Amino acid sequence: MSLNTDISGASLVIDVKGLTKIYGQRTVVDHFDLRVPKGAVYGFLGPNGSGKTTTLRMICGLLKPEGGSGTCLGWDVIEQSDRIKTQVGYMTQRFSLWEDLTIAENLDFVARMYGLDNRKDRVKTALKSLGLYERKNQLAGTLSGGWKQRLALSACMLHDPKLLLLDEPTAGVDPKARREFWETIHDLSDQGVTVLVSTHYMDEAVQCDFIAYIAYGKKLIDGPSGEIASKIGLSTWKVEGPGLGALSKALKSTSGVEQVARFGTSLHISGPDQAVLEAAIAPWRDHKELVWTPITSGLEEAFIHLMKEVKDNFA
Amino acid sequence: MRSGFSLARISAILTKEFIQMRRDRMTFAMMIGIPVLQLILFSFAINSDPRHLPSAIIDRDHSAFSRSVVTAFANSTYVDFVMAPQTPEEAEKAMLAGKINFIFEIPEHFGRDIARGTRPQMLIIADATDPSAASGALAAAGEIINTGLRREFSTALATLATGPPPVEVVLQRRYNPAGITQYNIIPGLLGIILTMTMTLMTAVALTRETERGTMENLLAMPARPLEVMIGKVLPYVLVGYIQIIVVLNAGRILFDIPFEGSRLLFFWISTLYIVVNLLIGFLFSTVARTQMQAMQMMVFLLLPQILLSGFMFPFRGMPGWAQAIGEVLPATHYMRLVRGIMLKGSTHSDLIADIWPLIALIVVVSALALARYRRTLD
């Protein structure tokens, strides 16, 4: 198996160009390019219906793209999806294990489908690390949302895949379980497993090494997660003090201010042009009780900015 | 907000139901299709007085008399003479294989005895596994003979016009001499029960996975269509065996149905039939989008299987086009096989003409199902 390499020399687990999916008249994914280096945690961000799920499904061979080409784990995404499936763990957005099978039966079925050796041991190990060994004979359908999520993750890792495709794995999961989930993801990444994860939680984006932001089936930006905001060139000021509600309303109607967002006891005010933004906030800068500090724009501001741009383009 | 009885809410629900009904094209098509299909099948295919039943004639006399009797039977349209075997054995073999319904045997010196007025015997052997198929022709036999002879020889043999019938008809009802309808119904019912339950089991096999969302998981795993098909079909073969055992024992205990033939042969052809039906169900589930649609397809296929297979009405009594459709239905062949084995004691070589269509159906239906099997979520 030979993997393509990117400029920096790291081997690419996913290298696709121009992936396009059309349903009837609607282009759901439009000329999507993606390069994911080995061992990376790569985040797909975007609003609902932006094409994240469709893209993941095309990569693992569940949907046939109308256009585009490329490789996944060194195999052709169009022609060799059978080979790709054996090395990919795909966790669906909706719980898709068998609710009328027990936890153990589900894992055993998955293990058999991948033709795993030492099946009983693997299932036992998975059950124990999952913390469900005592409840292994419980029907999967009776598990709570968080447990279903963990079971699904455990099932899609049972065959030690080289690539994990996780479709909104933390939707509807409590914060503690989410934290544990991300710890697992980073452990796997350290072991060389590549993880492609879709989410619409901004706070999860920072957990990723790389981010691609998708909206309306198009990739708007991608890159290392730390560089996204500076790439966009958005300026942000933070202001703290009393009367933020009135200030927020006033600023929103000021030209040069693109976003005003409340973060606890402070406001974040962002605009694409630093000089214009500073001019816009100038009337309030001298207010005694308000504390103004320039900050680096966060991912959330960056993505909202991107969304506004795209909407403008569509209009 | 009003909490009492509301016409507005009724009309809201009504509108929603109409919209959903219209969106579900398959249901809509079935609502139109099933009545039309039933109307056509019931009104054209049903014939309680079957004609043109294939028959064999063994004429040992070859006189003008025997020929006129044969002509009279042919003209009556009750029977079509499709073979004129030299020996009774040859004719019996054809009857065992279900190719003919009647054997007419005219003895030597038939004409001479008529002329002498010594009333020769004419043998009519009927396949009575389906009593209703045989009854019409047998009831009319005496009159047909008289009419035939009278027309030809009334001038020469005036005595024939009056007095007792010139020929004594000897009837033999084979395989079911008492004409017990259950003997015919039970084996047929076995075919219908199996086709109903087996097709239904697998018809929902894939649509259930799709509706529950587990299809996505199944497709993400490295499973080949053939593996999925065999894995989904095989468990129900056992269910089919259980049904057969239940129906056979019930038939034996309640109706004292005989079992003349080989149980091993019966087991073999039943396996073929069960597999055909399971595969048809699987094919449906590759076509249908929902379990509901799959079930509707099952009902759609069930109708002709009941009406055109020879279960409800004598197969040979149906018009040609109905028989042609019947020939491609698995139930038609299975019913002939089961009636042959249980009531006639037919053997593998007698029945080969009805065994290979089942095997051919297995091949064709599997090929179609595998071609239809969607390996993606598209």
Describe the overall structure:
- The complex is a heterodimer of chains A (315) and B (378).
- With 315 residues, chain A is α/β, with parallel strands linked by helices.
- Chain A folds into two domains: 12-228, Rossmann fold; 235-296, 2-Layer Sandwich (Alpha-Beta Plaits), CATH 3.30.70.
- Chain A contains eleven helices and 14 strands.
- Chain A starts with 11 loop residues before the first strand and ends with a helix.
- Chain B folds into two domains: 53-174, abc type-2 transporter like fold (3-Layer(aba) Sandwich); 181-372, no CATH class.
- Chain B contains 16 helices and five strands.
- A five-stranded mixed beta sheet of chain B has the order 2-1-3-4-5, with helices on both faces.
- The longest helix of chain B is centred in the middle third of the chain and has 31 residues, at 225-255.
- Classes of the chains: A alpha/beta (315), B alpha/beta (378).
- At the A-B interface, helix 2 of A face helix 10 of B.
